[in-house]
Amino acid sequence: MLAFAIVPRAVSAPGLARAVAVLSVTVVLSPPARCVLRRSPPLSNFSAAHWSHLHPIDMFDSCNAKNFYHNKALTSPYPRSRVERTHVPADKVDWLAEWKDYQPVEYTAMSILSGPQWADPQVSDKSFSPKFNERDGEVERTSWNGLYVVENGRPRNPAGRTGLTGRGLLGRWGPNHAADPVVTRWKRDRSGNKIAHPVTGKNILQFVAIKRRDCGEWAIPGGMVDPGEKISATLKREFGEEALNSLQKSPEEKAELEKQLQRLFSQEHFVVYRGYVDDPRNTDNAWMETEAVNYHDETGETMDNLPLEAGDDAGMVKWVDISEKLKLYANHSYFIKLVTEKRGAHWSEGPGPECPE
User: Fold this and answer.
1) H helices of the chain, where?
2) Residue 330 confidence class, pLDDT cut points 50, 70, 90
3) How high does pLDDT run on average in the chain?
4) SS3 string of 222-264?
5) For residue 352, what pLDDT band results from cuts at 50, 70 and 90?
6) d(C-alpha 208, C-alpha 186), whole Å
7) How far apart are CA 257 and CA 275, in angstroms?
8) CA–CA separation, 43 vs 36, rounded Å?
9) Measured in whole angstroms, how far is the alpha carbon of residue 81 from the centre of its chain?
10) For residue 333, what are the β-bridge partners?
11) CA distances for 154 relative to 174, 240, 284, angstroms
């Protein structure tokens, strides 16, 4: 099916204090959607602050434009703290909505302020001169979704207000880049036959899920991209650390594990998603972005040689059947849904919701 996606391209011009969003229309191939937007807002209403609502076009809920704004990034208390965000009404999330009395809470965790090597200094530090919206040495400060606004030396969350300024638990001002490997296989019976869902008749996919130590939620294994590191290396490293406990292996075990991982991560794969993540750690000035990639073990033989063992930030790890009933960290369920659409696998027993006229 052909789907039209509005993709913002950001450009700057002399004499302009901020970036101006230029919209272009591209045609992309996508699976048939059960529910699509029937009305689009006028182009004159779009600005750089709207990119997250448009990429991808059906992010979060394609039937309800207001849900394109982040949701989990508005929750209180802030993770691993007692800090309560300033309440942000739904009609005030967008930076274009006037709110003269907006007074967000300022919070950066002490673990960040203590100055670990992987974190930025405070913006007020005279020795800190970040190059926002570009690659800054080994640090990637560009966004997957284009230019973001910088005000008073601080990047502004392009998805809207969060009720909290500073960096919270995030090390970087602006985008904090992560990578999430979605490793899947078909659910099979003891004879090795694929198992289909009794209602939809579609084969059931399974993916490797971890239970996060920090919040107890189930999630896709993944983590932060180190400065100068290729995303492909991050994907393999994080899966090994969190789902296979590679950090605790002997040198001999690590060498064998590396061979098996190389086999898995050399198989057919596709990029599921690139862009903003609706993460509870996000603030007005720092936010999560990710590249999620699906590595599919069609026969299941590769993963049979890789016994799961939780490690690093993971408290538990297991194969999980994929369906719409999944409740995962941040918007990981959305990434999983995209994988089922690509693979033609089971997701929902009922028909998708009809879009209102």
Assistant:
1) 51-54, 110-113, 231-243, 251-265, 301-304, 332-343
2) confident
3) 82
4) CEECCCCCCHHHHHHHHHHHHHCCHHHCCHHHHHHHHHHHHHH
5) low
6) 12
7) 30
8) 18
9) 22
10) none
11) 8, 35, 9
Which of 23-32, 168-177, 239-248, 252-261 is modeled with the greatest confidence? 168-177
- Candidates 133, 166, 126, 127; CA nearest to 148 is 133
Rg of the chain over Cα atoms, rounded to whole angstroms, equals 21
Q: Are 86 and 163 in contact (CB under 8 A)?
A: yes
User: For residue 192, is it left (φ>0), alpha (ψ between -120 and 50) or beta?
Assistant: left
CA pseudo-torsion sign 332, 334, 335, 337:
positive
- At which residue do the structure tokens 């930030």 appear? 313
Q: How far apart are CA 344 and CA 285, in angstroms?
A: 38
- Spatial separation of the C-alpha atoms in residues 224 and 133, rounded to whole Å: 18
Phi-psi region of 344 (alpha: psi -120 to 50; beta: other; left: phi over 0): left
Q: Which of 108, 101, 66 is nearest to 87 (CA)?
A: 101
Q: Would the CA dihedral through 84, 86, 90, 95 be positive or negative?
A: negative
Task: Retrieve residue 309's tokens.
Answer: 């063992």
Q: Let me know: does 261 contact 183? Beta carbons within 8 Å.
A: no
Instruction: Record the tokens describing residue 127, joined without a space.
Output: 């020795």
- Counting every residue, how long is the chain? 357
Say if CB 90 and CB 66 are below 8 A apart: yes
β-pairing, 205-212 vs 174-186, is: antiparallel
Report the range of poorest mean pLDDT among 38-42, 58-62, 211-215. Answer: 38-42
CB atoms within 10 A of CB 342: 14
| 50-64, 270-284, 340-354: range with highest mean pLDDT | 270-284
Task: List CB contacts of 165: < 8 A, sequence separation 6 or more.
Answer: 104, 105, 106, 107, 154, 283, 284, 285
